[in-house]
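Dear Dr. L.,

I hope this message finds you well. Following up on our conversation about the binding site, I have prepared a predicted three-dimensional model of the protein together with nicotinamide-adenine-dinucleotide. For your records, I am including the exact sequence and ligand specification that went into the calculation, followed by the structure tokens. Please feel free to forward this to your student if that is useful.
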Amino acid sequence: MNTQSISAQMEALRDTINEYNYQYYVLDNPTVPDSEYDRVFQKLKALEAENPALITPDSPTQKVGGQPLGAFEQVTHEVPMLSLDNAFSEEELTAFEKRVKDRLKDDSALPFSCEPKLDGLAVSILYEQGQLVRAATRGDGQVGENITANVRTIGNVPLKLRGQDIPERIEVRGEVFMPKAGFEKLNNAQREAGLKVFANPRNAAAGSLRQLDSRITAKRPLMFYAYSLGVVSPDTFELPDSHHARLRQLAEWGLPMCPEIDTATGAKGCQAYYEHILQQRDSLPYDIDGVVFKVDTIALQEELGFVARAPRWAIAQKFPAQEEMTRLLDVEFQV
Ligand code: NAD
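The resulting structure of the complex is given below.
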């Protein structure tokens, strides 16, 4: 294929993904299953890897999420909220571990934090003097939407942290999601009332959280699990030096944590965790679309840093597609 036709193919893929992103992130109304989205996205990534000169700065592979909705006040993230790179097989997981080790020039077995990849939406919650003062969506990673009033209605989000020794300012990040049972109940009620049914729990969580009237959000069965930190001040505040220990610290301060979070050593240990969680998938009370592995040592995370839209020290290993889209069109998706 000549450069011109490759370039045209890449442009078509970018347009398709941008349209999917708009439907998914801005309108909370996905038009294709995630597996189809991932297929098109990986196709663009592969073409970009073979033709780096043709990567455009506006490519969806260089950006996070979607534009924040104008209806909400905007919040600029002090530390960007990034996405995650994906692995779709054990080979890709092993390749991730090798990239990390090569970059660190260290061949020893690395500890990883292992976490279910909750299928909801990323939220940042800021506590000052232990009090919840602001909550925001990820938005495009730099600027999100101020959804404080809505997050305050989520039952398991503490409005005040527990304990004495807490940083003056601490930003907790995690996922807001709708448990499966709540989703079924909500969709039944919507159907009976002749209202819109949601495509899946992720879509229902996003629609519920981005309500302009927080009384509606308060009636929706949302939950939050914390999985990382954003800004912490003063910078002299001593936090544990591993990600997993930081999560345990957050739990002590009263933040809800996914019970399945664990640690493992090396890609082999991570693969065993993946298989264990995959087996549990159907019996878990919430939807997950994979697992996330994070290099556990904070100093190594800092050394590894970030690329355009994702940290180099983490990867999401996706599960095989298990799609159910209530409103999905009956068409073949081909790009
Ligand atoms: P992502 O979902 O692949 O990974 C990043 C996100 O994972 C984070 O922002 C966070 O919300 C979530 N997450 C869950 N558990 C986590 C944990 N323990 N630690 C860290 N993060 C955790 O990336 P993305 O940029 O949010 O979205 C891309 C994905 O969204 C696609 O792979 C696709 O599945 C879906 N998508 C679908 C459509 C569609 O039209 N169907 C469109 C856009 C995106």
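In brief: The chain has ten helices and eleven strands.

With kind regards,
A. P.
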